[in-house]
Amino acid sequence: MPKLKTKSGAKKRFKITGTGKVVAAQAGKRHGMIKRTKKFIRNQRGTMTLFEGDARNVKQYFLPNG
Q1: Are 59 and 66 within 8 A, CB to CB?
Q2: pLDDT value at position 66?
Q3: What CA–CA distance (Å, rounded) separates 62 from 66?
Q4: Confidence band (pLDDT; 50, 70, 90) for 1?
Q5: pLDDT digit string (tens) for 2-38?
Q6: Alpha carbon distance 31, 57 (integer Å)
Q7: pLDDT over threshold 90, residue 62
Q8: Terminal Cα-to-Cα distance of the chain (whole angstroms)
Q9: Beta-carbon neighbour count of residue 59 at 10 Å?
Q10: 23 forms bridges with which residues in the sheet?
Q11: Whether 63 contacts 39, CB under 8 Å
Q12: Are 4 and 64 in contact (CB under 8 A)?
């Protein structure tokens, strides 16, 4: 069997913590900030941990060696 490769896009977008959780950036801050509220922009700073189902998919399909 050949080695499983990590998806290059996933390397840049996700990080696995020491406890096995998947951390990602907050969504919704790429463009269109003028129509968003100040509260929304503040709350979208930083990172968040993914939900269990999404994290399972990321680890299984995109970061098999992570």
Answers
A1: yes
A2: 79
A3: 9
A4: confident
A5: 989 999 999 999 999 999 999 999 999 999 999 999 9
A6: 27
A7: yes
A8: 19
A9: 19
A10: 15, 49
A11: no
A12: yes
